[in-house]
Amino acid sequence: MTEEELKLRLRDFALRVLRVCDALPGSAKGRAIAGQLVRSGTSPGTNYRAACRGRSPADFVAKLAIAEEEMDESNYWLDLIMADGILPASRLLALFRESDELTRILCASRLTATRNSRANVQQIKNQKSKIKNPVDP
């Protein structure tokens, strides 16, 4: 999956989450869950975009970790809505599966980026300077 494809998929997920939140009842629990789900469901897309513009490999990994965590939280809220019967599970199952798959994709990306970052640091760390020290023979 390309960077642009994942950005679009995260955007589409956020739009679907917003529609679910609009459908939640105006009860105390509906409002509380809607508030949490709006934040956690829209955050992965913004954090992934920020990761793609990261200033360093460490920044990229950190922002991917936030996107992954927020996507997993969205999965939790969707599960809670279905478990409590606030909305029919049949309406949310596809979105729930998408959140699970996106969590896995973000996790795999973070792990790959972490491995690549460590490998690059080891390569740099072991390089010897080409600058000759005037004291060295």
Distance between the termini: 53 Å
**Compute the gyration radius: what is it?**
21 Å
User: What name does the CATH topology carry?
Assistant: de novo design (two linked rop proteins)
Q: Supply the CATH class.
A: Mainly Alpha
Task: Find the count of extended strands (DSSP E, 2+ residues).
Answer: 0
Mean model confidence by pLDDT: 91
Give the low-pLDDT segments.
none
Order of helices and strands: HHHH
Strand content: under 5%
User: Helix coverage percent of residues?
Assistant: over 70%
What would the principal axes of the Cα set say about the shape?
A: elongated
Total domains, how many? 1
* Architecture (CATH level 2) name: Up-down Bundle
Number of separate helices: 4
**What about the largest sheet?**
none
* CATH superfamily descriptor: 23S rRNA-intervening sequence
Content-based structural category: mainly alpha
Q: What keywords describe this structure?
A:
single chain, 137 residues, mainly alpha, de novo design (two linked rop proteins), 4 helices, 81% helix
